[in-house]
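Supplementary Note 3. Input sequence used for the single-chain structure prediction.
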Amino acid sequence: MLARDESSLKRTPLHALHVARGGKMVPFAGYEMPVQYPAGVLKEHLHTRASAGLFDVSHMGQLALRPKSGRVADAARALERLVPQDIVAVAPGRQRYAQFTNEDGGILDDLMVANFGDHLFLVVNAACKEADTTHLRAHLSTRCLIEPLPERALLALQGPKAAAVMQRLAPELAKITFMTGGEATIHGVACFATRSGYTGEDGFEISVAAAEAEDLARALLAEPEVRPAGLGSRDTLRLEAGLCLYGHDIDTTTTPVEAGLTWAIQKVRRPGGERAGGYPGAEAIAGQLADGAKVKRVGLVGLERVPVREGAHIVDEAGSAIGRVTSGTVGPSVGQPIAMAYLPAALAVPGTVVHADVRGKRQPLRVSPMPFAPHRYFRG
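The predicted structure, written as discrete structure tokens, is reproduced below.
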């Protein structure tokens, strides 16, 4: 039963296809989305790890950032006013992970930024896309045209055999490497694609006109390696890969340093760098880069078979809460309970054993490096 009036939920261009394939539809970020198909979350997860899963991620926000000067470098410099990342260095055909920050250094949203030659292409989270658009317009309108792209769908083909599928349908895409992309034609359908994703596997994210999305999805699903996959397996795959989910593992109260995302802040944007600071929360983030954060996001592996879910408290010997679990499941590929949590920095050391309060019983977990399942991106 849907938690809200079904009529208020939006539908992606693939809604009819999901229903025809037996997708179990649930509310998610204002959309009616498939959480799983008849095979179930476990089989969809394992199939994506072994072969290729096709995900509908059309609920995500897609935007074009077009420089009024006609020079994409000007759009990159403008965007750097809102993120801690080096956007200027993103060459045409390349893509970079970034975060919008607030004045306290908290994360307003995380996003992907691609340079498509004459403009920047942004993919933002579904629940944040309206706020992100407003944020961009409030700060960058004098220098850029901010163009939402609601008429486009977004598909994610993920798994070790995704490249073999692309070799048949779009050979030029099978040659590109991780975090690169551009315009392409797949099975005769014009689109733009990047070699990226949210599962830790090799794969492609494909932006396509809404009117042609179902034809493209059917063509991909007709390939023997490909099966449909829903939000349930997308979540377990990304958790095994140690990837943050906005609104859960990161939000406006967590900084990139606390979240373990310092790898995404390039040297040129850090204190002493050529273009250091200049974005919201730069001072707070610089302080944490220099002195360390008081809390840190960590990976946890359960020492018993009991799963530890989001919201569980991490407690000390006296039973007082010292942290919280932000995501948790039993990893289908790793075969054991896994979770992410925020802990005091002194405890955020691999090998440290902590306890989660699960329905009044303490469950032991060991702080573990992430990812839990190795990344298998294609870097050439």
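The chain has a mean pLDDT of 97. Helices lie at 15-20, 41-50, 72-79, 129-140, 162-169, 210-221, 231-240, 282-291.
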